[in-house]
Amino acid sequence: MGEFLKQYWLDIQSDLPPKYPDDECRQGPFKSWGSVLCDIDMITKALKLLKPEKVIELGTFEALGTIKMAEAISSYTSIGRLWTFDSDEPLERENIKGVITSKIIKNWQEEEKWKEWKNVVAERRKNLDKMFDGCEIIYIDGLISETLPPLLKEIEHWDFCFHDSTHTTPEIRGEFDLLEPFTKTGSVIVFDDVPINDHAFYIWFTSNRSDTWDFQHSGKGHGQLWAEKK
Predict the structure, then answer these.
(1) Strand pairing class (99-104; 160-163)
(2) Which domains does the chain have, with CATH numbers?
(3) Model pLDDT for residues 187-197, shown as the tens digit of each residue
(4) Is 134:80 a contact under the CB 8 Å cutoff?
(5) CB neighbours of 56 closer than 8 A, spacing ≥ 6?
(6) What does 21-72 look like in DSSP terms, one character per residue?
(7) pTM assigned to the model
(8) Whose CA is closest to 123, among 65, 165, 69, 61?
(9) DSSP class of residue 221?
């Protein structure tokens, strides 16, 4: 398997509007965190064409994208699995000796900006409880840097990954460093929230991985960097 992006890039483009209809109803610090229709539409089209067996999502949030992906996987298999990673407790960034990383906020109920987090988790749980005949959704709670490595060792390689967790270059690179050794020819990863070609992670990836990865960039929605292992 290989050269999926070269062959199907035009086929997976979306004509859908960027935002979910209820996005304007969102309030508070999470208003801009809603899933984007055209981004998810591209991903579901890609899943149906690529038909990956081992699918990972980093960053579940309210699981709007998760259920769309599960629906797509169910359309081509009866034994699909989708592993989705996030935290039931919110995360915040911390800087230790110049390295930015994430930590779980244990006392988030006391912080004003996180007062709506319980609603996010409730919506996530409601969506994750939905059943799909052909796809089992497996939610893995905790820090991705701790929870992802055991799964990767268990499944040995992954076919498709939607990366929508952290969005600073050091954090994206840290999670990509965990994922990359478990790729194979034709593995496809989508990095969300890479809006323009001078984005720091875009520059790093295209400058350092062009020998081993093919890539395309979509400026629609949040902006996405798509990459396929050669």
Answers:
(1) unpaired
(2) 4-13+32-229 (3.40.50.150)
(3) 999 999 998 87
(4) yes
(5) 82, 83, 84, 85, 151, 158, 160, 161, 162, 179
(6) GGGGG--GGGGGG--BHHHHHHHHHHHHHH--SEEEEE--TTSHHHHHHHHH
(7) 0.93
(8) 61
(9) T
